Amino acid sequence: MSSTASGKSGTWRNWAGNVTARPAREVTPASVEELSAAVRKAAADGLKVKAVGTGHSFTAAAATDGVLIRPQLLTGIRNIDRENLTVTVEAGTPLKRLNMALAREGLSLTNMGDIMEQTVSGATSTGTHGTGRESGSIAAQIKGLELVTADGSVLICSEKENPEVFAAARVGIGALGIITAITFAVEPLFLLTAREEPMTFDKVTSAFDELWAENEHFEFYWFPHTGSTNTKRNNRSAGPEKPVGRVSGWIEDEFLSNGVFQAAQLVGRTLPATIPTIARISSRALSARTYTDIPYKVYTSPRRVRFVEMEYAVPREALVETLRELKAMVDRSDLRVGFPVEVRTAPADDIALSTASGRDSAYVAVHMFRGTPYQAYFTAAERIFTAHEGRPHWGKVHTRDAEYFAGVYPRFGEFTALRDRLDPERLFQNDYLRRVLGA
User: Fold this and answer.
1) Is the pLDDT of residue 250 over 60?
2) 108 with 102: CB under 8 angstroms?
3) Cβ atoms within 10 A of the Cβ of 169, count?
4) 3-state helix/strand/coil string of 75-137
5) Is the pTM of this model over 0.85?
């Protein structure tokens, strides 16, 4: 199976393989007009409609038994505006293609997540983010978008045009319509110096505020069953470029982070008792390194080991307490966790259902190797996250519902009222949206 989620005989599967759907039909429109027509026809036939990207969500956000819209023909850059420093890109464009095309033009997004397989619309609609002191999620960099709504009409949204739709649709979970194009803010290509180094859990948690304040982009990975973390600081650099060496890069990023890691996960899945030992070895395998390169080569890395993930945003000031509770829970349980816990941050933004909406946020992501039982670990972790008013990533495993979200998102009612206006018949509804937004 390629990195794009797919399936045979009309079955759609996501990347992690934990969600499947059997749509009544699939449509691959080659233009906005064809997409509008497909939406109108679905409504006439009494079928629901969902657009699907590369299936990197772990939730059933894109699953449907109605019409599945595949956007792979809606790709490419429509326009680069060098004066206003924006780029308009078709919704089905993979982030990887966007990043490479921008770099060739001497441009870059300000910030991005750690993988770039997803489509631009799938990544932004679920609130995909990297880590940043001042720079927010990918959706926070949107300057405008084009949306096909339930009656097949095309809505152009920005701060000036349909601003109430713009405030919500940047992270719309597919509930407001189907995005056909996105305009991002970009900037002249720059260099980042990445400094990766091991640090103890106690040190990183006690010095977290300083590490956050001193670095433009700070993140770390904690290895459960150990007191070890691997930290990464990315800061802008005057250069010169000093990329990771081809051999050492292959050893660290492919052999250790994908190849050996995959083998270790297979051993751990078969023999869970070996996991703490593997974790101790893994936490020591990656040595300190510093390199300088263009943004997408620093922010992103290949992820070939398949996993299932839950991620919550907690208020930034609650992060250290949340992490200490998570570590204490793992230490006193008989859980065996072979995957590191990833910690990142984002500044408050003004998007209604962004996980950083209205508050400076820290993200804690827990993972389990695909095929290992993850429910006990995720349930225990989720209990800790929700006690701190956590907001789950819309594309990652969680058990929350509309009642919970109404309590943790001050603008939840604003979003659902807009949905009532744009999609009164619930053409874009599915089981997941029924749960998280209410009927």
Assistant:
1) no
2) yes
3) 30
4) CCEEEEECCCCEEEEECCCEHHHHHHHHHHCCEECCCCCCCCCCEHHHHHHCCCCCCCCCCCC
5) yes
pLDDT tens digits for range 100-132: 999 999 999 999 998 889 999 999 999 999 999
* E strand segments, 316-419: 341-346, 361-369, 391-392
Q: Which residues contact 213 (CB under 8 A, 6 or more apart)?
A: 133
Highest mean pLDDT: which range of 132-141, 260-269, 362-371: 132-141
Contact 135, 110 (CB under 8 A): yes
Which helix (DSSP H) or strand (DSSP E) does residue 230 occupy? strand 228-237
| Residue 230, amino acid | N
Cβ neighbours around 271 below 10 Å, total: 11
Q: Whole-angstrom Cα distance, residue 264 to residue 258?
A: 10
Beta bridge partners of 49: 67
The tens digit of pLDDT for each residue in 157-205 reads: 999 999 999 999 999 999 999 999 999 999 999 999 999 999 999 999 9
pLDDT category of residue 248 using cuts at 50, 70 and 90? low
Q: How far apart are CA 213 and CA 201, in angstroms?
A: 18
